[in-house]
Structure formats: C-alpha cells, structure tokens
C-alpha cells in the first residue's frame, strides 16, 4: 500500500474540493441574506487541511495499484462528505447538529436527496445553492473529474476510474486515454446541465432556481430549493422538462457520447439495457396510471401527468415530487419504491442496482429453467449479440446477494432503533438506492429519526453510491495483506 502517495492525492482532492465553497460565498455576497461566514469556515478548513496533507508529500510519485484506487475512492467520498458538512453545521440552520450536517452532506454528494432540513423556502440562497452544487458534483463523480486532472500532477487515473465508475463492466473506455474518457463524460454532463437550466428558465423558473434545479436534475439527485419540490412551481411545462432530463440522465453516458460523435440515434436502438430501461418506465407508468384512475378516482389527464412524472422521478432514483405520492393508494408508492431498486442504467448518474444487472439476473434465471429441461445442454447468456463470461454473471449474483444481506442488516438496525417496518424498509431502500424520499415517518424528510439512524443511513448511502464492493473490499483481510 502506497500510503504517502494516497495521502498526497487525498490532499490534492481536498484542495480542489475547497474551491466548491467559493460559489456559495459569492451567492451570499450577491443576495446578502446570510451564510457567507459558514462557507468561509468551510473553505479555510478544507484548504488548509488539504495543504497540510499535500505539501510535505508534494514530491512523492508513483503509479496507483488497484488496491490504492479502491482506498482513495472510499477515503475521498467519506472525507469529502465530512468536510462538506462543515458549512452546513456552521450555517445556523435550525436543529442542525453534527449527525444532521453529515447526513445532509452525504445525501448531497451521493445524489440521494434525502434531507433533514425543514423550511427550505426560508434558508439563505448560499445554503440552497450549496446543496444543489453538492449533488451536481457528486452526480458524475468528482473522482471522474479528478481523473482528468491528476495526470497533469503525475498521478495515473485508471485505477481511480475503475473503482469509481458504476456498473458490472468497469473496463470500457470512450477514448484511448482514460483522462480523455473522463473529460468526454464531463463535457456531456455539463452540456446537459446548461441545456436543462436554459429550458427551466424559458419555462418560467428564476435564474437561481433554473440553475439550482438543473444541477439536481441532471445529477439525478432530487434536492430542491423549495419544500414542495417541483410541485412548488405548479407548471406542467416545467414538469415535462424535468421528466425528459431525468430520463436522459438515467441513460448510460457512453451512449450519449456515441450518439453525439456519430450524429445518430442508432447507439440507443442497439443497446438492450436502454430498451429494458424504457420498458420498465412505461410498464410502471401504465400500472400507476391505472391504479390512480380506478382506486384514487383521479381524472385521466391529471393521473397520467402525476404517474409519468413520479414514475420517472422514482425509477431513476431522482426523488423529485409534485404531489404527496405517499398518500396515494399504498400499492403505487410501494411499486415506485421497488422500481428504484432497478434504478438507472450503468454508466449513468442514476442509483439503484442498475438495469443491466436485473437484465442479467433475469437471463440467468431463464437459463436455469432451461437447464432443468436440458441438463446436458450448454446455454450462453447474450446481451446485444455478445456472449458474456461466467465471471460477469457470478459478479452480478454476488452483488445481488451482498446487497440483500446489507439491506436487511441496515433495516434491522433501524427497527431496533425504534422505527416501524414501513419506515425502516423505505428509508434503507431510499438511501441504498440513492433515491431520497421514503414512506412512513420519512415520507417528507428525515428530521425526526434518531442520530443513530442518520449515521446508519449515511453509511447506506455510501454503500449505494460506491456499489457495495468498492467499500466492502476494505473490510477483507486479503485487502490489507502486503
């Protein structure tokens, strides 16, 4: 383990992160409604800590190994979330303790969207902007951005990219150089953000709200500057824009890259994961629409608008809302929560287990049924015309089994802490899937649960963001053997 190199890189990344405190400082100066001091503290503490870690090791060089990459990614997301909580803690938000500030910071950077804050409409603009900015930075992953920068500082980024990038297939590159891949992803991400912000502004949002909501929309985060979320605007055009950009952001960004480079939609048409992703959205929307019309006695046009928006929002793990969907017939919110387990596509900003994993699980199940009929036959699992190795199938099953085990552990801890079954189940699902809103006591926010539950759920968010194994591997004995 290259300890000194790891500390050096952590210092660099923390110095870079300190710069994210400057835009909220500027917002505080522009609007003059408070928050500036808190962000100055956050900037100073993050910067000096980063310098303290980096300067004594500025001449340390080396090539990262796989183990180093895993450790840096886990350390960075953990340390980053802790330092990201500093301005929230000092911002004098009512009832904001250490556990609350850390929970909010973890929720922002992991793009979960769960919040402990009540009264968003009355917060300083600097705090509101900072929460949205956290989600935007966490959406594509600061590590991916850092991969584009670290080569200039003499640090290879391939191991960081492999450890950070979500999905069962980690080795695909869009360009010959990994730094070029990171830059390509961020160019697409930035372009979508700008387009989303302009569309929101044209539909009637203020410049501040348009930029803020574009951050959390493209990041599939779900934070809003209003307690009523997107419903505050009561604007069908804004809802449709939000729906479109949530759908786009839930797609593998490599497909966007291929489509833009070739000026064709063919990459989407050829991708089986994309087809399943759209199919799941359509099926869940139709089922939710039917239940709302028949059981809730809601008019067809209103029911369709609500069903489509909330299906896309929850299934992509964004977490925006226009209605109190937890008050709908229980079947619908439970169905939506289950849809969040599937989540977005691999290589997207969406959470959940990813569509490709569920597609592979389904194909593996179908293969086992065929083997019962033809025990001696050999069946290959194909995706998009390509046969997949058994290693990938085994990895998917291992991920699924580990996910279920961790889910029940977290759920049992929350129930032991006093939460009812519905609240505990939905809270863990919302945090591990990086969704945000839950049911029961956490339907509106997470302010009323205990500090222990907030710490546990913060860990659950990290497991979800790092797709379990990246974090879990650190707890194995083999990882620490030299």
Could you describe the 3D structure shown?
This protein has a domain at 3-199 and 206-226. It has helices at 3-18, 22-31, 36-54, 66-90, 98-109, 125-140, 142-149, 158-164, 178-202, 207-218, 236-249, 253-262, 266-270, 272-294, 300-315, 331-342, 355-373, 390-416, 421-432, 451-465, 469-472, 477-480, and strands spanning 382-383, 386-387. It is mainly alpha-helical and 482 residues long. 65% of the residues lie in helices and 1% in strands.
**Helix fraction by DSSP (H/I, runs of at least 4):** 55-70%
Task: Profile the largest sheet.
Answer: 2 strands, antiparallel
Percent of residues in beta strands: under 5%
**What are the low-pLDDT stretches, counting only 5+ consecutive residues below 50?**
none
Task: Spell the H/E element sequence.
Answer: HHHHHHHHHHHHHHHHHEEHHHHH
Number of strands: 2
> What integer value in Å does the Rg equal?
22 Å
Overall morphology: globular
Average per-residue pLDDT, rounded, comes to 89
DSSP summary: helix tally: 22
Structural class: mainly alpha
User: What is the end-to-end distance?
Assistant: 7 Å
Major sheet: order of its strands? Answer: 1-2
List the helices and strands and how they pair.
Blueprint: H1 3-18, H2 22-31, H3 36-54, H4 66-90, H5 98-109, H6 125-140, H7 142-149, H8 158-164, H9 178-202, H10 207-218, H11 236-249, H12 253-262, H13 266-270, H14 272-294, H15 300-315, H16 331-342, H17 355-373, E1 382-383, E2 386-387, H18 390-416, H19 421-432, H20 451-465, H21 469-472, H22 477-480
Antiparallel strand pairs: 1-2
């Amino acid at each position: 383990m290259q300890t000194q190199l790891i500390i050096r890189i952590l210092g660099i990344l923390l110095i870079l992160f300190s710069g994210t405190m400057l835009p909220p400082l500027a917002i505080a100066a522009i609007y003059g409604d408070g928050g500036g001091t808190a962000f100055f503290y956050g900037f100073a503490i993050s910067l000096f800590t980063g310098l303290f870690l980096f300067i004594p090791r500025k001449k340390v060089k080396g090539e990262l190994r796989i183990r180093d990459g895993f450790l840096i990614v886990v350390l960075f997301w953990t340390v980053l979330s802790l330092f990201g909580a500093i301005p929230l803690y000092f911002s004098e938000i009512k009832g904001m303790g250490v556990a609350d500030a850390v929970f909010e910071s973890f929720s922002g950077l992991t793009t979960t969207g769960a919040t402990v804050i009540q009264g968003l409409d009355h917060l300083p603009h600097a705090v509101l902007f900072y929460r949205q900015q956290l989600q935007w930075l966490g959406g594509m992953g600061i590590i991916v951005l850092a991969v584009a920068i670290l080569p200039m500082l003499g640090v290879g980024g391939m191991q960081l990219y492999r450890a950070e990038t979500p999905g069962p297939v980690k080795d695909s590159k869009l360009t010959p150089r990994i730094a070029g891949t990171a830059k390509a992803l961020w160019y697409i991400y930035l372009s979508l953000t700008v387009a989303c912000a302009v569309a929101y502004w044209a539909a009637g949002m203020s410049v501040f709200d348009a930029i803020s909501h574009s951050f959390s929309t493209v990041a599939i985060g779900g934070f809003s500057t209003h307690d009523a979320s997107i419903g505050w605007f009561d604007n069908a055009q804004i809802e449709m824009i939000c729906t479109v950009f949530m759908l786009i952001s839930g797609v593998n960004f490599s497909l966007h890259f291929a489509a833009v480079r070739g000026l064709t939609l063919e990459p989407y048409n050829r991708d089986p994961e994309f087809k399943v992703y759209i199919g799941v959205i359509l099926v869940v929307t139709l089922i939710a629409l039917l239940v709302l019309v028949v059981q809730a006695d809601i008019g067809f046009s209103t029911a369709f608008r609500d069903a489509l928006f909330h299906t896309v929002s929850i299934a992509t793990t964004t977490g925006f809302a226009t209605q109190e969907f937890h008050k709908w017939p229980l079947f619908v919110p439970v169905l939506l929560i289950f849809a969040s387990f599937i989540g977005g596509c691999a290589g997207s900003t969406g959470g959940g287990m990813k569509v490709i994993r569920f597609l592979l699980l389904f194909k593996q199940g179908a293969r086992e049924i065929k083997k019962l009929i033809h025990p001696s036959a050999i069946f290959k699992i194909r995706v998009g015309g390509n046969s997949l190795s058994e290693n990938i199938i085994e990895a998917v099953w291992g991920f699924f089994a580990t996910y279920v085990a961790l889910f029940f552990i977290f759920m049992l801890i929350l129930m032991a802490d006093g939460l009812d079954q519905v609240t505990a189940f939905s809270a863990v699902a919302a945090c591990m899937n990086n969704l945000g809103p839950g049911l029961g006591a956490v339907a509106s926010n997470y302010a009323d649960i205990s500090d222990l539950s907030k710490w546990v759920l913060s860990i659950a968010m990290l497991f979800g963001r790092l797709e379990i194994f990246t974090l879990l591997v650190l707890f194995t004995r083999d990882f620490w053997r030299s």
